[in-house]
Amino acid sequence: MPQRLPALAFGALAGLLMAVQGTLNTQLSRTIGRVEATLVIQTIGLLSAGFLLFPLRLGTGDLGQLRQAPWYTLLGGVLGVAIVFTVVAAMTRLGIATATTAILVAQILTAAAIDHFGLFGAECRPFAWFKLLGVALLAAGARLLLS
Hints:
By secondary structure, the protein is an all-alpha fold. The chain has one domain (about 1-145). The chain is about 75% helix and about 0% strand. The protein is built from 5 helices and no strands. Helix 2 crosses helix 3 (about 75-95).
């Protein structure tokens, strides 16, 4: 377990950042519109990643190998746009906590299926029955949050 702590900390940080990002994106969308906010957010993301990659040279891979990647892996960019748009739409209508709860439940169920079936090149990690109890408890907790 101790060797997994840094990865768990990164996961927790990602969750924290996603909640803050969703809130900020929602506020921006109220000012300029959902699609417009999505464009601005993705453009700033592109510029930020470019800055990390080129001037700061923090990349560890090889962009020249892009043609070797399976075509479907490039759909992550399209999904990123869809994620920003749908998170903003959900948070605008439901509030931050309720929308985040729905997002997390769907994300965990989808991740469990991806792990179990080894989809998209992921390592196959069978879904043990005791994990079903964890998902059921998560869903019950989500239901309580939605009350």
